[in-house]
Amino acid sequence: MTDARQFLGIEPVGDERHWRLEVVPELTTPGNFLFGGCGLAAALVALETASGRPTVWSTAQYLSYAPTGATLDLAVTLAAEGRRVTQGRVIGTVDGAEILTVNAALGLPGDVGVAGVWLERPDVPPPEECPPRRLPILGSPSIFDRIDVRLARGRSFEEIRSGSAEPGSAASALWAHVPGHLEPSAATLAILGDYVSGGVSQPLGRPVMSRSLDNTLRMVRVEPTDWVLCDIHVQALVGGYGQGVASLWSHEGSLLATASQSMSIRPWLVP
């Protein structure tokens, strides 16, 4: 089973506070720059290794693009190290220019004697009964070639692209899985949580381009699962900026994490 560090190809440089990620096509968007979820995932690999603690919360602010072929340097700072919780950050740069900033809390588990999950997983067909989610062929390899995605709820891109789709539900759902099995971790879920931005076309009934301004991940638990269900809800689109959230569920029905994003939106004129 592949872990996130192997999937991303990220390696330390000299010590566990400095890391390097080569932006290969398999980690990029079809626009030929680093997929935002992969940037957050790389930072979490570095933070969890440096702190020796698992992620509780993290947020990435995307400042610029790391193009295909670039080298992303990641510098870890552990700003506060408590008995249970470490507060840290990562600055990602390309040739000295800041590309992303990640802040995170990493903490040891505790037992307060009570626990609960009050979200409900949507009732959708299992992944083997859902059609593949197909994106238009844009001519270059990308992260989407490495992840098998099935449309569990919502309209296909072909329906939305046709121009005949009426505005629909703001709720959609995707099953996501990495062939060869990507070991579950906060970094893995950070990659899949970035699918929030793809849900904006659902309530609009027409294709749009969504540029993630941030990516926030709140961890609940990590457990083995072949498939992750991304239950996406777009909350608003006003003034060209959208907001959305997702609940990330295991195949067996356990809540793994929640994700949220703000996005810059513009029309997508697909040929």
Describe how the helices and strands are arranged:
Elements: H1 4-8, E1 11-13, E2 15-22, H2 36-51, E3 55-62, E4 71-81, E5 85-94, E6 97-107, E7 148-153, H3 157-161, E8 171-177, H4 186-193, H5 201-204, E9 208-212, E10 214-219, E11 228-238, E12 241-250, E13 255-267
Antiparallel strand pairs: 1-2, 2-4, 3-6, 3-10, 4-5, 5-6, 7-8, 8-11, 9-13, 10-13, 11-12, 12-13
Descriptive report:
The protein is mainly beta. The protein has a single domain, classed as Porin (Beta Barrel). Helices cover 14% and strands 40% of the residues. It is built from five helices and 13 strands. Strands 1, 2, 3, 4, 5, 6, 7, 8, 9, 10, 11, 12 and 13 form a 13-stranded antiparallel β-sheet that branches. Strand 5 and strand 6 form a beta hairpin. Helix 2 runs antiparallel to helix 4. It is globular and about 55 Å long.
The CATH architecture is Beta Barrel
CATH C-level category: Mainly Beta
- Report the helical percentage: 10-25%
CATH homologous superfamily grouping = Acyl-CoA thioesterase, double hotdog domain
Tally of individual helices = 5
Termini distance? 39 Å
Specify Rg, calculated over alpha carbons.
18 Å
Q: In percent, how much strand structure appears in the residues? A: 35-45%
The major beta sheet can be summarized as: 13 strands, antiparallel
- Give the number of DSSP strands: 13
Mean pLDDT across the residues is 93
In total, how many domains does the architecture comprise?
A: 1
Which fold does the CATH topology refer to? Porin
Structural class designation: mainly beta
